[in-house]
Description:
With 84 residues, this protein is of the alpha+beta class. The chain is 48% helix and 19% strand.
Amino acid sequence: MALRLSAGICTATTAYGTVLLDQHSGEYWELNPSGTLVVRTLLDGGDERDAVDALVAEFDIDRARATRDVLALTEQLRTCGLAS
């Protein structure tokens, strides 16, 4: 499923990954390069499988680990209200 950032959440690319900023609360979260790849893939219309494929290709990790990481990150983003 593609990912959508919640209203008031903006992103900024840094040398270390991506920062998500909640403009309403002023809170921010920093994503490392693998988190950035997952979020970018999903925001660009890809689904979880596409994000897993991207992680496996870019970081040479096994598919099971990549799947767990993608599901954990998307769950956390939704739980924190950053995405739907």
